[in-house]
Design goal:
It is a single chain. By secondary structure, this protein is mainly α. It has one domain: Orthogonal Bundle (Helicase, Ruva Protein, domain 3). It is built from eight helices and no strands. α4 runs parallel beside α7. The two termini are 23 Å apart.
Length: 163
């Protein structure tokens, strides 16, 4: 069961403009990525040399995994905010942000041969996923220490203005 402070923080976040912006950004990135991978990305992948095409396949799966995990987490938080789901249920491991080892892992190869748009989507999806991972840890984690330096100050400011 959530303690009162965690529930209050989670409620403040999902009721904030920051959540709305993150939700909109995440859903727009999912749509943009799907359009790219099903359209121009597919065409660009066909003309890549074999090694680059294999890298493209792996990294397109990574971007897809990141975005599906992020979208799932955001949809669960919206369901809680809208009263369609209990916050205690959303805290269960089943609804927490998953696939961290895949989504946060670095590519073993240089992504330079990949098309520019895919590299951009990889970068943006990584930023979104990392942001949601920090939120998941902050809202539902167990005594996760704050990040050092300026990041901690920025997070504290964002949390203060979310109220």
């Amino acid at each position: 069961m959530l303690n009162g402070q965690m529930e209050s923080q989670a409620q403040a976040f999902t009721d904030s403009a920051m959540f709305d912006r993150t939700f909109d950004e995440g859903m727009a990135l999912v749509e943009e990525t799907a359009r790219y991978l099903d359209g121009r990305g597919r065409e660009e992948a066909r003309v890549l040399p074999r090694k680059a095409a294999m890298l493209y396949a792996g990294e397109s799966m990574r971007v897809t995994t990141r975005l599906m995990q992020a979208a799932s987490w955001l949809l669960v938080q919206r369901a809680v905010r809208d009263g369609d789901m209990e916050r205690d249920d959303a805290m269960s491991e089943r609804y927490r942000l998953g696939s961290r080892e895949i989504c946060l892992g670095a590519c073993a190869e240089d992504v330079a041969p990949l098309p520019g748009e895919l590299k951009d989507l990889l970068h943006r999806s990584d930023n979104l996923y990392r942001r949601i991972a920090r939120l998941d840890d902050l809202l539902f984690g167990e005594d996760v220490p704050p990040p050092p330096g300026a990041r901690a100050q920025q997070d504290a400011l964002a949390q203060a203005f979310a109220k």
